[in-house]
DNA sequence: TTTAGCACTCAATCTCCCTGAGTGCTAAAC
DNA sequence: GTTTAGCACTCAGGGAGATTGAGTGCTAAA
């Protein structure tokens, strides 16, 4: 099913026209915009054939044509030109990346907000562990004689802490002993391995030490659980309403609810690794709520076996080229940022390293 | 301007009818629902007077009456009955409070989500410091010879950490020295006081030590800044669309955008301390976007001079009694939770304290 | 002071009609 | 065989009445 050059030009013209105007594209408009030296009648004949092939469709008999999902797919795969970001776009994104960020979680949330502001579409962001995380180190800091702070480090470079208050006082030496025990017996273990190990050790351990151990190991398990669970952050959901395809509430509400409830849940999105940018068009989506919408997402490396995914959701009539370019640029920026292990210099405010 | 008993009954009937049906309330409906032994004509006369007083209004001549903001205000102040939560409502909230939570920030976010699910209204949540926080303690944990973790504690019991990588190796003793310096010179200072102190110390300190000090103190400043900034978390924004007053996009969109953009920004809401539940009706709101909506919020104590506020936003026709009851119950639960300093027992899974 | 009765008002809804953009088809031209 | 001009046809969108019905205000009697 190879398309003639002219059919390709017409398809491209329909897609690009429709992306801009959101109105069905008529034969005359094609003549005007495509630069083809034929009459509108010829275009009509060609469009009729494109419709038979399932690449275009008509909302009703006397309207122009709009691209079908299949048409979008062909456009994205073969016809779309690589988009370049303008300098100022790129600068905007660079500026956005130079924010004060500390925790992975915050990065996700912030990144989503920025992308949403930039694109005027709702975004979602999530992290995906490619392997199971383990705790590499425990530090216990005495606060008062019945309170301490546990600081945990994982092999993914995450550091988490928690404040513990105990029912009875503990001495500094007891705490040190506890720390040694934790570091020897409870490091390098996955979430699933921690529970049985806790049971094993508790049978040996002195009765007194067991309480605090249980507390800290439970905390360790929570931390690992959190790292492994793909919590989804969403942002900018109301931006949907600015787009004509979501002007009617019946269309907008289910999708908005879907996005809103997606937040916090484990991701159910078909995130494929390896690819940089991935475009899922209309009915290609698994979720019913997304059947009339498209999703564009980019993944980036966080290091330590973690991968981040950030994407935008919008009508099938999105500017795929533009969005794909922005997302992949942003994702590259994030990869770079995490790759360096440190945040790029904030620019101003004195040097960090020289006296 | 004292109202007759009958007028009060009529006003109450209008408000409560309208809260349920969202339709203007006619004189016959009042006769049916209020139990008053008079005819609809009498009610009409009374309602005309209530309208003159500014307590009721008519969307158009031939419609029933709806409460004016002033009418709602009177209802809330004088006529509203204290609402009791049903046992299962209370249990739901209690269950919701028994979640795994670690960081204040997470508590806010989670609490918002829960309330939104419970009430079907959008929620916002924020914390408010009643005084300026200070760092009480620094701990530096060596990771590798050119990397360490700084753990900071504040007087509000918050513990924050950050992983630092250095351009050149540091010895354990250097790190200890650094820790001592930090703990002696940079504790007990407010955000504003840290900057000049950093300048003062840096002139004395050995050149080598300055780099890491600068890093850690900058981090401390970020932490304090974050604690003092009232970041607002929002949840459940799309639930707005389920309510008849936001069926038209022109009404819904500005409010949704307002709420969405409020997230992350410093709060601009008139949060008054001391009161438990606060109700702001329609035009009483300062923000233009809220002039047609009402806000119900409850505050709770977090301890350490921090106060949390959680609220819902909805049409002026909200069930004030019901929502106020739920919010205040929830807020009490949170206060209790923070007051204990520990999370209530998760129920199951073995005891924490006994061997 | 209350009630019954009646004329009046007005949002909401429906129907009908018109308009215009755009199509498909046919027959002629290239 | 391909392209073009011409024409009849279709149909969403929008505006102009017409209809409905809930609810009111007012008046006169109880």
Task: Describe this structure as you would to a colleague.
- Two copies of one chain form a homodimer.
- Chain A has helices at 5-21, 27-34, 40-52, 69-79, 87-97, 104-119, 172-185, 191-204, 207-228, 249-262, 320-340, and strands spanning 56-57, 66-67, 123-129, 135-144, 147-154, 159-165, 232-235, 277-280, 293-303, 306-315.
- With 355 residues, chain A is an alpha+beta fold.
- A five-stranded antiparallel sheet of chain A has the order 7-3-10-9-8. Chain A has a three-stranded antiparallel sheet with strand order 4-5-6.
- Chain A has three domains: 5-79, Winged helix-like DNA-binding domain superfamily/Winged helix DNA-binding domain (Arc Repressor Mutant, subunit A, Orthogonal Bundle), CATH 1.10.10.10; 87-130 and 230-340, Beta-Lactamase (2-Layer Sandwich), CATH 3.30.450.40; 135-227, Heat-inducible transcription repressor hrca homolog, domain 3 (Enolase-like, domain 1, 2-Layer Sandwich), CATH 3.30.390.
- Chain A has eleven helices and ten strands.
- The first copy, chain A, is elongated.
- In chain A, a hairpin with a 4-residue loop joins strand 5 and strand 6.
- Helix content of chain A is 45%, strand content 18%.
- In chain A, helix 2 (27-34) crosses helix 3 and helix 5 packs parallel to helix 11 (320-340).
- Chain A binds a DNA duplex (30 and 30 nucleotides) through helix 3.
What is the H level of CATH, i.e. the homologous superfamily of the largest domain in chain A? Answer: GAF domain
Number of strands of chain A: 10
The rough form of chain A would be described as elongated
Major sheet: arrangement of strands of chain A: 7-3-10-9-8
The number of domains of chain A: 3
Please work out how many helical segments of chain A DSSP would assign.
11
**CATH-derived topology of the largest domain in chain A:** Beta-Lactamase
Q: What can be said about the biggest beta sheet of chain A? A: 5 strands, antiparallel
CATH class of the largest domain in chain A: Alpha Beta
CATH architecture of the largest domain in chain A: 2-Layer Sandwich
Mean pLDDT of chain A: 84
User: What's the oligomerization state?
Assistant: homodimer
Greatest interface by residues involved = A-B, 49 and 49 residues
List the uncertain runs of chain A: 341-355
User: Which structural category do the helix and sheet elements of chain A fall into?
Assistant: alpha+beta
State the helicity of chain A in percent bands: 40-55%
What order do the SSEs of chain A take from the amino end to the carboxyl end, as H and E?
Answer: HHHEEHHHEEEEHHHEHEEEH
Gap from first CA to last CA of chain A: 68 Å
- Taking all Cα atoms into account, the compactness measure Rg of chain A is 27 Å
